[in-house]
Amino acid sequence: MEKITCHIRRFDGEKVWFQEYELPYEKGKTLLWALTKIKEELDPTFNFTSACGHAICGSCGVRVNNHPFLVCKTSLDEILETFHTSLLKFEPLGNFKVIRDLVIDWKPKIEKMHTIKPWLFPNEQGDKTSGFNQSEEEYKRISLSTDCVLCGICASECEQLTVNQDGYLEPFILNRAFRFAVDSRDGEAEKHIEPLLENDLWKCVHCMHCVSHCPKTIPLTEEVAFLRQATMKMGERNNKGARHAYAFHDDVKQNGRLNEMTLPIKTEGLVRTLSRIPFALRLVRKGKINLLQLPKKIEGIEDVRKIYQYVQEMNEE
């Protein structure tokens, strides 16, 4: 391979176009090398962001061939091999306002982060002299979540955020809420968790895109599950998300399988469910719902209930 071709999405504040650049191929380089070479040798009007060059600052996230990467840590050779092409398409991260070319606007996202109060509310164990002591186990609870470098990749790939920019919080904001809520030095976890219910916490569909693309491998969907459980432990159970979760919980405990006939009623209530009758009738006609087939207890239901009992005992400990 002698050359690589870069198609870069350009934006000047008014119009959008793709511009093509050709570079001589050099083995052992990164994607950041390619962008820097274009900026310094081919087109000084081209704009992108980067700083540390070591996957610490998180400023160099872009989409390449429809997938997000931190370009400073991403091998050019690996990308060429993965996509089996010498043609690379560069675009800004998704679900962000674009300022110019590959440069995105972080200000609205940071303003949204303020809703979960991303700072410590010191508990009574600390003082100004000795500070706080954490055990190794307590530190491990927050170690992965503190690895977040605010690169924005999780937000770029979030399916829920794509359709719900105003109501839903970015995955990295949910990560921050988790990080402070479980910190042993924080004494008011509710202040980080309560705002989540006002911002559609239960609308995460666990598509796992945030997890599969996170350059720091942070278990974001596990954190979301924890935060949902935390809201229910706080008594916030009269919402569609919690009711939906309890419908699954109760049906499986009772019969070992989900009762799809009663699920909408348990989740949304009778009045709201009645408005969906035309949709339900279409499902019946297509054979998706059988009104005559009621769920029966599965074989081995007692073993399922033992699992429930075991989990309950573990939680009580």
CATH class identity of the largest domain: Mainly Alpha
Largest sheet: 5 strands, mixed
Beta-strand proportion: 5-15%
- From the alpha-carbon coordinates, what is the Rg to the nearest angstrom? 24 Å
State the CATH superfamily name of the largest domain.
Alpha-helical ferredoxin
Assign the structural class, choosing from mainly alpha, mainly beta, alpha/beta, alpha+beta, or little secondary structure.
alpha+beta
User: Given the structure, what is the number of helices?
Assistant: 15
CATH-derived architecture of the largest domain: Orthogonal Bundle
Compute the average pLDDT: 93
Q: What characteristic shape results from the CA principal axes?
A: globular
Find the count of extended strands (DSSP E, 2+ residues): 7
Instruction: State the strand order across the main sheet.
Output: 2-1-5-3-4
Report the end-to-end length measured between terminal Cα atoms: 61 Å
Residue windows where pLDDT falls under 50 for at least 5 positions? none
- List the secondary-structure elements in sequence, H or E: EEHEEHEEEHHHHHHHHHHHHH
- What is the number of independent domains? 3
From the 3D structure, determine the CATH topology of the largest domain: Fumarate Reductase Iron-sulfur Protein, Chain B, domain 2
User: How much helical structure, as a percent, in the residues?
Assistant: 40-55%
